[in-house]
Amino acid sequence: NHPGHSWTGLPVIADGVQRDKDPQHPPGDAAAAAATALGQGPQDMVTVHMLRLYEKYSRRGARPGGGNTVRSFRARLEVVDQKAVYFFNLTSMQDSEMILTATFHFYSEPPRWPRAREMPCKPRAKNASCRLLPPGPPARLHLLFRSLSQNAATHGLLRGAMALAPPPRGLWQAKDISSIVKAARRDGELLLSAQLDSGEKDLPGVSRPSPHAPYILVYANDLAISEPNSVAVTLQRYDPFPAGDPEPRAAPNSSADPRVRRAAASSSSAQASGPLQDNELPGLDEMPAHVHHAQHYHKHEFWSSPFRALKPRPGRKDRRKKGQDVVTTSSQMLDFDEKTMQKARRR
Amino acid sequence: QWDEPRFCSRRYLKVDFADIGWNEWILSPKSFDAYYCAGACEFPMPKIVRPSNHATIQSIVRAVGIVPGIPEPCCVPDKMNSLGVLFLDENRNVVLKVYPNMSVETCACR
User: Fold this and answer.
1) pLDDT score of A30
2) Which residue in A48, A56, A58 has the most chain B C-beta atoms within 10 A of its own C-beta, making it the best mutation to test that interface?
3) With contact defined as beta carbons under 8 Å apart, do A174 and A46 qualify?
4) Residue A292: its pLDDT value, please?
């Protein structure tokens, strides 16, 4: 584990990346946008940290942590056996994200120096002033990491423990937990817990979420980010067309759009009358009377089936003159002169 | 828009994430200059459209009319830039991703 880098400014990763100079002043209006989007006050340190990384990338193109992705994970605070335990849900990490570095950022409260121990003065030593023993060393801070799978009820598998010398005053620290996060992910245990144990009973108010809640940053290289449509995978959360629009091929009557329904209505009434009237070939009504009389055909009998196989056209010489259309009783096929056929085709 | 050059070139386009409904989870940037490519790639192509060898041949074949139906080469992005986006994931954790090919630097006929 890296020696604890402690500094007054913003926490940065403990593996030597240059530090952020100015303390808690978040960059630009992005912080305000982030605060409103998150419904958090600007004091949310993880957001400020991420904004700092974003500004650094945007200004200098410095790839964060050498990769193309930084994921932050906020802590969910629970009290287990009267101890404050922070839980981190790492399930939003994508399989294509190769972890480069993971860091745990936490705020060390200023050490509560134990009161100087008062020794009873010895009655016989008159002039000896009642000396006060110097206070004992401040309690050391222990950091315990456990990982558990989503539905495990246990405390989880101990993944790492660190003993930290308490800093001279309250400030943010960062610890490299890359090996812990990689091992937990390898074992499919994407729920991580961190317990900051200073050996003392946690104060009753500890279960209150504090602006100093710890957080985890995971620096990764997303191998899928160069795929053609990688931006849609993570940013396109729904179709650009709001749900509820009927499918274009849905039954027209179900559409909300009156025009569509009206148009659909008109085409279906056309269908109701059936194709015969519309597709009647011209000349059928003008058939010479004798033909009608002789055969007593009704119109629809000419069309035994809606789809007639096309008959090869008779050669020019044996085509009948205009007006002599005789329906040969032998075949149901109708022969029309060229002009009629042209009109029909045009129709 | 009207004084845009006829030939394939980069045109200005600013994308506002609010226009495409992503602004609820994108913290930064709120908008960015994406640009786009448009214009002719017809024979003879000027150097500025940086045609590939294939595009040059295709435009000649089309101009000569050897093979009917051959289209003009396409005016497409050539050099592109990345964009860092800060957004909230499904668990409302803040994520920074650097997406490649998000804005057009130069266009060319291909």
Assistant:
1) 57
2) A58
3) no
4) 46
